[in-house]
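User: Let's play a game. I give you a shape written as tokens, and you guess the letters that built it. Ready? Here's round one.
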């Protein structure tokens, strides 16, 4: 269920940002400390908006019934639109709620904590819908038309993925110029389209053949026009009732006024390389991915506390067992880490106008979705007596009906949505390494300064910060070395596993950095709960960094015959014994 997966190649080094600097071996503590904070006045406005939304959701949506029936209540999205939930950041005089980016995120997260399905349409509309393009559109007919439709309450979405997959650069959906020169006729099929069944506006990618050359262009389609149809709603393993569908376009007319030509892109270049499109996509994914992920993490630690407090084994309360303590503490630290990443991505621009946050917002997708998965996976095991069983089943036998199993299914979807996790790692690494071409950039040969000497961190956390500084230098050296040894970018990019591991190191170092900076801001005396949370998170993260670094080193050695074995299975003989006694016929779908 990907949303317009991107190649994420770089178009240049761009403005300075914390993660961009970290990738060159420079830990810019001055950029993240003091850590940005939401103002009390803005937080108060967010508190009121969240309280109103949660009260509405409690009255309007029964999450268990949605999961059972696979449908949200009738007219739910229309009522959300009337309440301004599809115009969270628009000015009140324009019919919006006038919320900051942080408060809009809080609204989505709060909704997801009641029902992930209920939050998704507004999250996609906010982050990836037509409104996200208005700031990058030049004044003119397109901007005026889109703004008018949005002001009238139009819900929007993004229609890019096709049956062949989102990663493919080509698009089989075609746009043929009309004979009268007024516009184009779009024909093709799109799948996994968020808001597809309910959107009035969709941004559609299609291939245009003109002058003997094929290019991808972007069109804003009015779904009320003839030729547009919803082919079928998708039903997922989780996220029941999600407004997501396969769509068909059969000669849908789109006038020239609704064709979007991204600025700064050569006519024959890969369309997703446009800086504006990249920035919209990586920031936009934070709302439908990172917000529900944070909700999953927060709920998981809450359920763990409820369970551990009231359970015992062999006459001892669960809380007295060391491994239980580790599970609980690790979950808390990981929630703190997700919060730190999100707050940096949404608040840093106010503290540092013009800062480049694209690398951080790219990283946030995997950091939050994978962290949420780790937390709820451990929670499911911890709550063995009330975990995998559905809430309905628990209620029937008188157990507390915690919806762990439902959120477990929803959380797994977040690793796929917006780009499958391992592909996002690969894309992010490509983008970082592309900065070293055509010539490798200068990288730090040793840690710059001694930021770990700050008195605002506990002694153990100072050690963690020093580790980050030293590992950033190592990361930069590896990245530069790879660029120097592979003068052909595509040759380097084909080393997919190496790039994935490299990005995992990068993401851990970034997360550790913002966790430590936030702990220093919340508990500047060097002691307190935030310092403890940072210590627990960083201790575990260092183990993950060490493991990824070990595997990176092994990648330079002679490898097992992965390719030969895969080829034998796919096209050869001799391995069919692995399917012995297995029924491989696909059952008929009802």
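Assistant: Ready! My guess for every position:
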């Amino acid at each position: 269920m990907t949303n317009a997966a991107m190649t994420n190649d770089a178009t240049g080094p761009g403005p300075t940002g914390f993660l961009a600097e970290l990738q060159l071996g420079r830990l810019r503590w001055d950029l993240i400390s003091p850590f940005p904070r939401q103002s009390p006045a803005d937080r108060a406005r967010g508190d009121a908006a969240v309280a109103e939304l949660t009260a509405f959701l409690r009255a309007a949506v029964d999450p268990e019934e949605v999961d059972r029936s696979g449908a949200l209540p009738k007219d739910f999205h229309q009522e959300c639109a009337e309440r301004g939930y599809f115009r969270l950041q628009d000015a009140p005089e324009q019919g919006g709620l006038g919320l900051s980016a942080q408060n809009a995120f809080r609204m989505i997260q709060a909704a997801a904590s009641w029902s992930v399905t209920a939050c998704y349409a507004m999250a996609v509309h906010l982050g990836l819908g037509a409104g996200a393009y208005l700031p990058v559109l030049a004044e003119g007919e397109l901007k005026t038309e889109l703004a008018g439709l949005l002001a009238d309450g139009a819900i929007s979405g993004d229609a890019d993925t096709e049956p062949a997959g989102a990663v493919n650069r080509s698009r089989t959906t075609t746009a043929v110029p009309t004979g009268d020169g007024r516009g184009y006729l779009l024909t093709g099929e799109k799948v996994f389209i968020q808001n597809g069944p309910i959107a009035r506006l969709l941004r559609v990618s299609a291939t245009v053949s003109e002058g003997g050359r094929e290019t991808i262009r972007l069109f804003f389609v009015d779904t009320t026009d003839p030729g547009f149809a919803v082919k079928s709603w998708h039903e997922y393993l989780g996220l029941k009732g999600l407004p997501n569908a396969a769509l068909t376009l059969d000669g849908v007319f789109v006038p020239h006024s609704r064709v979007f030509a991204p600025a700064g892109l050569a006519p024959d270049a890969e369309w997703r390389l446009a800086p504006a499109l990249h920035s919209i996509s990586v920031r936009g994914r934070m709302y439908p991915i990172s917000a529900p992920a944070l909700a999953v993490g927060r709920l998981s630690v809450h359920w763990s506390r409820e369970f551990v407090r009231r359970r015992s084994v062999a006459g001892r309360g669960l809380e007295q067992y060391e491994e239980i303590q580790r599970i609980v503490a690790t979950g808390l630290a990981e929630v703190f880490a997700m919060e730190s990443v999100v707050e940096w991505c949404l608040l840093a621009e106010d503290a540092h106008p013009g800062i480049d946050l694209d690398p951080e917002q790219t990283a946030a997708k995997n950091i939050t979705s994978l962290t949420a998965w780790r937390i709820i996976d451990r929670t499911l095991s911890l709550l063995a007596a009330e975990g995998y069983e559905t809430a309905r089943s628990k209620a029937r036998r008188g157990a507390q009906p915690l919806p762990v199993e439902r959120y477990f299914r929803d959380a797994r979807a977040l690793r796929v949505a917006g780009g499958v996790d391992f592909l996002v790692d690969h894309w992010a690494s490509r983008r970082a390494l592309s900065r070293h071409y055509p010539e490798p950039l200068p990288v730090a040969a040793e840690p710059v300064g001694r930021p770990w000497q700050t008195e605002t961190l506990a002694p153990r956390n100072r050690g963690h910060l020093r580790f980050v500084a030293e590992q950033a230098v190592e990361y930069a050296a590896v990245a530069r070395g790879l660029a120097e040894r592979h003068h052909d970018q595509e040759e380097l990019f084909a080393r997919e596993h190496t790039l994935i591991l490299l990005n995992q190191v990068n993401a851990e170092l970034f997360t550790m950095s913002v966790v430590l900076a936030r702990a220093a801001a919340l508990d500047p005396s060097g002691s307190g709960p935030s310092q403890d949370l940072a210590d627990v998170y960083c201790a575990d993260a260092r183990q993950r960094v060490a493991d990824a670094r070990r595997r990176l080193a092994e990648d330079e050695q002679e490898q097992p015959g992965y390719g030969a074995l895969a080829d034998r299975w796919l096209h050869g003989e001799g391995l069919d014994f692995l399917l012995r006694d297995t029924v491989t016929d696909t059952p008929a779908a009802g």
